[in-house]
């Protein structure tokens, strides 16, 4: 699976949009971009994933560049409860021996302040 | 509530004890995982089970012994652990091995070895 690079930490004011970047310059054509977050001492929570098109759900939007070498997770109106570690993960189609396993990096610590 | 339940939430055990961690999922998934998260380290994948068969063992010491009696339950049997095994142990499940689906995590078991 391709490696990802994320800033170690970011701050965001409550009510503003939080834009979390991720670089994945070695991504392959069959690899998806996944975002998870982990609130302190809890299990990771799935946020969103995409292949090449931009995606949006009730939690966030995912913007993937045309060359797919980077992406941005957008939390449109950040709240204090969005303070967490955000992980960007690139994973191949879950066939063969890759199953659904995820390889986590250090992630970005997002702090939302009042 | 993610549909993946882990018990106990907290466990303190001595180095000579034997204990078991339990994970249960009611999502109809057929792949289950154990991850370990030590302080200030990324999550590390320990074991992968698909269709109740262990398909991956990431060089985990034999003092950790997984068991998957059916597709809904996963155990991690612990014996003669070391203090450095103290960590958050997370269980996850997904609809593997085919298809691209997200993994759902339990809340974890916080293990302290004394």
Largest sheet of chain A: 5 strands, mixed
Overall mean confidence score, pLDDT of chain A = 91
Biggest protein-protein interface?
A: A-B, 25 and 30 residues
Report the average pLDDT across residues of chain B: 90
Low-confidence stretches of chain B: none
Q: Which term fits the overall shape of chain A?
A: globular
Structural class of chain A, by secondary structure, is mainly beta
**Class derived from helix and strand content of chain B:** mainly beta
Strand content of chain A: over 45%
- Encode the helix/strand succession of chain A as letters: EEEEEEEEE
Q: What gap, in angstroms, lies between the N and C termini of chain B?
A: 31 Å
Computed Rg of chain B = 13 Å
Q: What letter string, H or E per element, gives the SSE order of chain B?
A: EEEEEEEEEEE
In DSSP terms (H or I, runs of 4 or more residues), the helix count of chain B works out at 0
Oligomer: heterodimer
Number of β-strand runs of chain A: 9
Assign a percent range to the helix content of chain A. under 10%
Strand order of the largest sheet of chain A: 1-9-8-3-4
Instruction: Name the poorly predicted regions of chain A.
Output: none
């Amino acid at each position: 699976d391709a490696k990802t690079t994320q800033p170690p930490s970011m701050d965001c004011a409550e009510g503003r949009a939080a834009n979390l970047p991720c670089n994945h310059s070695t991504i392959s054509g069959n690899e998806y971009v996944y975002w998870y977050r982990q609130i302190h001492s809890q299990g990771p929570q799935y946020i969103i994933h995409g292949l090449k098109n931009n995606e949006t759900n009730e939690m966030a939007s995912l913007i993937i560049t045309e060359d797919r070498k980077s992406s941005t997770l957008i939390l449109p109106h950040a709240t204090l409860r969005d303070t967490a570690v955000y992980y960007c993960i690139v994973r191949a189609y879950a066939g063969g021996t890759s199953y659904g396993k995820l390889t986590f990096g250090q992630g970005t610590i997002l702090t939302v302040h009042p | 509530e993610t549909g993946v339940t882990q018990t106990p939430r907290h466990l303190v055990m001595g180095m000579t004890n034997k204990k078991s961690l339990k994970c249960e999922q009611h999502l109809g998934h057929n792949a289950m995982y154990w991850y370990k998260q030590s302080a200030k380290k990324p999550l590390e994948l320990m074991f992968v089970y698909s269709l109740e068969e262990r398909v991956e063992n990431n060089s985990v010491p034999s003092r950790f012994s997984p068991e998957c009696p059916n597709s809904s339950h996963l155990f991690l049997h612990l014996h003669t652990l070391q203090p450095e095994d103290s960590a958050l142990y997370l269980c996850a499940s997904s609809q593997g091995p085919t298809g691209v689906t997200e993994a759902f995590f339990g809340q974890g078991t916080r293990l302290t070895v004394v």
